[in-house]
Amino acid sequence: MSYQLELRHIHYFLAVAETLHFRKAAEKLFISQPGLSRQIKEMEGQLGVTLFERHNRQVKLTHAGTYLKEELTKNLKHLESILDHAKLLEDGKDGKLNFGYVGSAMQKIIPNLLLKFTKEHPDVLFSLKEMDNNKQIEGLLSQEIDIGFVRLERIPRGLNSHPVLKEPFCLVLPKAHAIEASTFKNLSQLKNEHFILFDPEYSASYYEKVMTIFDDSGFNPLITHNTIHADSIYKLVENNFGISIVPKSLQDESNSKIKFIELNKIKQRTVLSAVWNTENRNPILGNILTLITNEN
């Protein structure tokens, strides 16, 4: 069966599907409402399906319409990616990679990766965006980013991962704190301290792993602050609002107001992983994944 649909039909349909309101969709598209209604009727006629239910000025997607919205949204991103890649080739570039990452990945992992990659692929553009773990997963599923660097124990179906760094945790203390690396024995020495931790929204599984450190130490921590940024943690520690536990790769040796004590005698380790969508068709993605998997 052949259909005479055009790209404009798809854009019009998605506009109505997103707003569920013909007037608002028409305004968004800068066309008249009757004209938009005709285009949707034309699309329904071509497909032989009803896409919207219209009752008392309420607009709802049918089952077929819901399916079409999900699939067209996903595949339209593929088309946009293909067209963007063609434009980059015209401009003399090999392509573009969109990165998402948690802050610790930018300490060494990503800079070292990009230095190695650009030696072989100097004409690739990079977009780098710091995002929490959950935002990266959303971005990978929608293919708004091509590759992410996360601290998660589990990832959704359709995504694949490869560990790039397994590391211990560190205590973060004010510089003048009485506990030093030479006098630190175990975490129970600090059971009366206030703790500043990464927010569970940063990564629920990462948060739970940190909590098992306290479980093994025999006490429940007094958590007074949660944040998603290491810089915020360090500023709070500097000003004696509490102490913290962070991945070793987040150590900031340039900050003279805080100190770090590596927790290398506990069993817990945190893993930074590269994650990508197995359906991502960006031709550059395979090249960087080859480098990542060969290096680690």
TrEMBL record:
Keywords: DNA-binding, Transcription, Transcription regulation
SUPFAM superfamilies hit by this protein: Periplasmic binding protein-like II, Winged helix' DNA-binding domain
GO CC annotation: protein-DNA complex
Family: Belongs to the LysR transcriptional regulatory family.
GO MF annotation list: DNA binding; DNA-binding transcription factor activity
Name of the protein described by the UniProt record: Transcriptional regulator
DNA-binding keyword on record: yes
Entry annotated with the keyword Transcription: yes
Phylogenetic placement of the source organism: Bacteria, Pseudomonadati, Bacteroidota, Flavobacteriia, Flavobacteriales
Signal peptide bounds: none
The organism of origin for this protein: Siansivirga zeaxanthinifaciens CC-SAMT-1
